[in-house]
């Protein structure tokens, strides 16, 4: 079975926000927090997104395109 966080990223990239959010919300680590932050950025909920970025080692403005950011997260997850 694949990593649920990779599945969350795939859901997010497929515009399945609720499914991605459910997975990110049910897991507590730096990657799930980062995914959670990006999802809220996509949603346009900047304050919630910034809260979740504060739970990671990344910054809200670090990536301009959230879809590219999700791809980077997926690549990191695949390589860990």
Description:
There is one protein chain. The protein is an all-alpha fold. It has one domain. The chain is built from five helices and no strands. It has helices at 4-13, 17-26, 30-43, 46-53, 66-78. Helix 1 runs parallel beside helix 3 (30-43) and helix 3 packs antiparallel against helix 5 (66-78). The radius of gyration is 11 Å and the shape is globular.
What count of helical segments does DSSP give? Answer: 5
Q: Could you state the order of secondary-structure elements as H and E? A: HHHHH
The share of residues in extended strands comes to under 5%
> Which percent bin holds the helix content?
55-70%
Structural class: mainly alpha
CA gyration radius, whole angstroms: 11 Å
Tell the overall outline. Answer: globular
Low-confidence segments = none
According to DSSP, the number of beta strands is 0
By oligomeric state, this entry counts as single chain
Main sheet properties: none
C-alpha end-to-end distance? 16 Å
Estimate the mean pLDDT confidence. Answer: 95
How many domains make up the 3D coordinates? 1
Summary of the model, kept short:
The chain is mainly α.
Secondary-structure map:
Blueprint: H1 4-13, H2 17-26, H3 30-43, H4 46-53, H5 66-78
Features:
single chain, 80 residues, mainly alpha, 5 helices, 69% helix
